[in-house]
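Key idea: predict the complex, not the pieces.
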Amino acid sequence: MSKNEIIENINKLLVEDFEIDSDIISPNAKIVEELGIDSLDFVDIVVFIEEEFNVKLGTDDFKNVVTLQDFYDLIEKKSK
Amino acid sequence: MNRVVITGMGIYSCIGKNIQEVKKSLYEGKSGIIFDEKRVPFGYRSCLTGMVDKPDLKTHLSRRQRISLGDEGSYAYLATCEALKNAKISQEFLDENEVGIIYGNDSTAKSVIESVDKIREKKDTTLVGSGAIFKGMNSTITMNLSTIYRLKGINFTLSAACASGSHSIGMSYQLIKSGLQDCIICGGAQEINELAMGTFDGLGVFSVDTKDPSKASKPFDKRRDGLVPSGGGATLVLESYESAIKRRAPILGEIIGYGFSSNAAHISTPNVDGPSRAMKKAIKQANLNTSDISYINAHATSTPVGDSNEAKAIFEVFGNNGPYVSSTKSMTGHECWMAGASEVIYSMIMVLNDFIAPNINLKYTDEDSSKLNLVKTTLNKNFDVFLSNSFGFGGTNSALIIKKLIS
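Result:
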């Protein structure tokens, strides 16, 4: 999956499933502070990533993820 | 001691999705029972059940709120929306006052089974998702509704088998009466699915009279051959009389008696003594004579032993020329954890609209039921006081007495 596809799918998840306003989605947006993702949401993100990208993540993998860009990079790295 | 009144009611049941629809069904004696094909390959002895549509809550609740709600929670939520609206309780009121919740529920089978199946398949607990635990705990309804409505008062689930809903009203009544709370949301909900009722079906106590599902539930009839499971959600808002008057809330009725007892006997077979003691306690507490009670909404589920023993208990307490009696389970089936709350709502609808709903499918009474004043067809009748019986496994009994009180 290309980086663009990863970005597209993650953004789609955030807008359609997590009901986040598409206007506030940008690579620099802070996931917790700006997008309002909480600790429970990370569990559901793990489920989505497994189903969509066949990538196994643990909630610990998000330790260094602050912005949406960090999240895209993490998935790209893990899917290689 | 505070007087305790009902200021709001909401219902989501197999005979209607709101108070108005249910009122029409009760008056017309309409059944909500169907034959559920899904239960055939699952190995059910009886596939009859009450059925409700799966609610779509997308326009009501956020994703976070929705993923923590199982079927029973969805039914309870819709019933609670209607009850709060009818009680004229806004979110602002809930934010500024200490409102509590005590709700009856005694299973979350579907949520638990589906979650465990997923873990078994994936071998990874994270993949069950974040909503699974909040859907799977027995207190799912109170934990979800207290969060959705940001409630600040008493907050727990009451599990007492098929008397859960009734005891939730009784306990809320006690807390308001004693002055510990001013306003409590109470009720009962019951999931409807093949995963939830298999163990109950296994006891062989469900009706297998499948020719016409609407005629299967026959409480008090000589031909009765078992109960028909059902479900949904039923919510009441209970409030101190003072609080209701202060905020100019609609007052629908007053709870004047709550009798409870335990059978000290068999785990599933009901007896006469336990229910009889519960009814006597409620009547004594209400400071009434038996002749003051005009209508009894019987627990009668359509099982051979249960209905006979309840008929004996009613006759023992009320004697000859007793009150009118009917079992709305003839139309709804047995709404189990929800039944005690829904049947108070059904009876409230009757008392507020001057009729007594029929015990449908009653053609031939037996030795015990023939001693009761059973209502076979809709009776137009103005009355003021009713008693609602609810009994459950383990011999738990609850009898509530409610008086019409229109503000």
